[in-house]
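Render this sequence as a predicted structure.
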Amino acid sequence: METAKRTMRDNAAIRWAMLVLLSGLTFSTYWFQDFMSGLKGLMFTELGFSSEEFGRIIGLTTFANLFGMIIVGGIILDKWGIRITGYVFGLLATLGASITAMAAAGFFGADKGTMLTMMIVGRILFGSGLEILCVLATRTIVKWFKGYELALAMAINIGFGRLGTALGIASSLDIAGGHVSPAVTFAATLIGFSLIMFIIYSFFDARIDKQNKELADMAAEDEEFKFGDLVKLVTNSSFIYITLLCVTFYAAVFPFIQYAPDLLINKFGFTEAMPATGVFSVGGSVTTGTIMVYVVIFLFALGFSVVPARLPSKQARRIFFVLIIASFSALVYSFRDILEVWFHNGSKTASLIPLGTIIFTPIFGNIVDKKGKAASLMILGSSLLIFGHLSLSVFNSVALAYMGLLSLGIAFALVPAAMWPSVAKIVPENRLGTAYATMFTVQNWGLGLFFWGLGAVLDWANRDHLEAIKNKQMMFDYTIPILVLVACGVISIFLAYKLKFHDKRQGYGLELPSGHKS
C-alpha cells in the first residue's frame, strides 16, 4: 500500500494534468467527426453533394470499424499498452484527416466524383483511428482515476469531446469563409496538435508504469489475450444490455447532430450564414470570438462540478454556488444581443446539444461518483431523448424546438456520464480495452446505418421536390427521419430498465457511488 501512495497517480494535480493532455485527442477527433454538420448546405451548393452523398461521407467514417477494427485495436491496447496503441492509431487518424483536407482542396482532382471518393477514403482512415482513440482515452482514465473521481474524470473528458463538437458545428462556416476547404484543413490541423499532446503524455505514462510494480505484475500475468475472454464478455447479460443501449442512444444523437443545422434552417427558418451585425469577435476574428464563448462556458461548467467538492464546508459551497451562478447570469446578460443573433442561426443553435453536455456532463459525472444511480439516470436520459425528437419532428413551435434541443443536450450528458463508468464496474480492468472496443464496434454498426440512412430517408421523403429544394424554392421536410430517432429513444428506455433489473441480480453496484460494491 505504501508503494501505491508514492505513485504519480495519487497526486491529484498530476492526475488532472494527465487528463487534460489526454483530452486533446478527444477534443480534436470529435471536432473532426462533427464539424461537417455546419457545412452541409455549403457542400450542397459549392460541391454539389446531395443529402445521401453527405450522409455517405459521414456514415462511411465507421466503415473499417464495422468489420472488427475496433476490437482488433482493443486487443492491441490490452496486449501492447497505451503508448504504442496511441502512436499507431493517432497517426492513422491524422493521415485520414489530412487526406480528407487535401481532397476538399482539390489536390486529387477538382471533379465531384474524385473529391467525393477521396474524402470518403480519408474519413474511413480517420474513423479507423478515431474509435480506438476513444477506447484508449476511456481505458487510460480508468488507469489514472479508478478509486478516485472516475465518473467525474470520464465526464470531463466527454466534456472536452462535446466542446470539440460544439465548436466544430458553430464555427465551421466562419472558418470556411464561403468555401469548404479551409474548414476541413483547420479541423485536420487540430488532430496533428493533439497527437503532439499525447506524445507528451506518453512520457508520464511510461514513468507511472515503472513506478507501479503491482500494475506491472498484473500486466505480466494477464498479458495474453484469450478468445474465452471475449466469449465471457459477450455472454454477460449486463454487458449485452449496456452495449445495445450504447447503440440505440448514440444512433439517436450523433447522426441527428450532423443534420440539425439543416433541419433548423429548413423547418424553422433559421439563418444559414451569420449576419454582418451582432457577431462577437476577438482581435477582429469572429472564429476566435466563438471559441472564447464556448471555452468560458466550459470553464463555468467545470467550476460547478469540480470546485464545490474541494471546499471545506457546506456554507462555503453555498456561497460559491451563489457567486458562480450570479457571474454566469451576468455574463449571459451582457452578451444578450449577440446571443439573440446566435440563436436564430442554424449551426449556432444546433450547438445547443453539445453545449448542454459541456455544462451538464461534469455535473452528472460528479453525481454518479457521489450518489450513484447510474442505471436510473440512463432511463431518465432516454426519456429526455424522446421528448427532444418529438419537439423537433411533430410540432412547429420554435420555443418547443429550443426546449427539445436543450433536452437532447441534457440527455447527451446524462447517459454517457452514467454509462461509461458503469462498464468499469461490469468488466475487469485488465480487459476494459477489449470491452470498450466491443461496445464501440457494435455502436459503429448503428452509427454507420443511421449516418447514411437519415440522408437516404431524407432524400426519399423529399424525392418529388429535390430540384426545387436545390433552387431554394422549397425546403427539406425532416419529419419522417426524426420520427425514426424517436423509436430509438423508446428502445433505449427498455434497455436501460433491463440493465437496472439485471444489475440487481448480478450485483455490480451500478446504482451505488464510485468505489462502493454491492
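Summary. Residues 83 and 206 are 8 Å apart (CA to CA). Residues 218-223 have pLDDT under 50 and may be disordered.
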